[in-house]
């Protein structure tokens, strides 16, 4: 089939140029190669497409009908080429973005809201999942992920922000249980982790003022894979939440939670935009990442 399509293009070029040699010159192949393509096509179709003479060529009746089909094929191919160019250069088509439900709700939608409104021809599919989606299987254009480090030769990785972890508790919990002054005091409390974090119950603290480092493992009775659920558990007094400052800053500002051990820092995370490696990224992907980077650069990820 592919060979026939190639031969149809050669046939159309011969008719348009009026000669085998003219077609050969345009196509960058030999005249004999052009002749062979036409001959193979005629054998395949079991018709004569061209009348040949020493002075000129002309189409047979079958050739005229077939030439129309070839023109339609060439026009369709050109439209496809234009469409691909548009998808690469303009903000059209579909953009598939994957991230966690928390990041999607709290940050990705606010970050991209005006941008999405400004590009009416661009369809956007925000896929929110607690698990990392496979970029190839799900045809993901951009994934927004939080990690201490991402290293994969199949990905292009764009750091967007550094984000601190914090421990939080409800004001009523602290008033009932008393102040927590040192990391070792945490051994008397229950940790409410979001268990998507690796080794979620193990905590490593560093105090910049004293240069002291403390590592410990907190007791865990209740855990969840969702930040919103963890916040509710924390608000109900079930323990101390481990959360990214990015996801807690509004609640801390409004007094819904208080930060536990503010002088002791947990390891930081980096927020990344991740795409598959391509020789040339579509403009919609580039513009999306630029918009996200602009948003997160203005958002304090730490205290």
Automatic annotation (TrEMBL):
Top-level lineage group: Bacteria
The record's annotation in InterPro entries points to:
LysR-type_TF_proteobact-type, LysR_HTH_N, LysR_subst-bd, WH-like_DNA-bd_sf, WH_DNA-bd_sf
Q: Molecular function (GO) terms listed?
A: DNA-binding transcription factor activity; sequence-specific DNA binding
* One record GO biological process: DNA-templated transcription
Ranges where the HTH lysR-type domain occurs: 1-60
PROSITE patterns, from UniProt?
A: HTH_LYSR
Which keywords does this Swiss-Prot/TrEMBL entry list?
Answer: DNA-binding, Transcription, Transcription regulation
Q: Per the similarity annotation, which family is this?
A: Belongs to the LysR transcriptional regulatory family.
Q: What is this protein's record name?
A: DNA-binding transcriptional regulator, LysR family
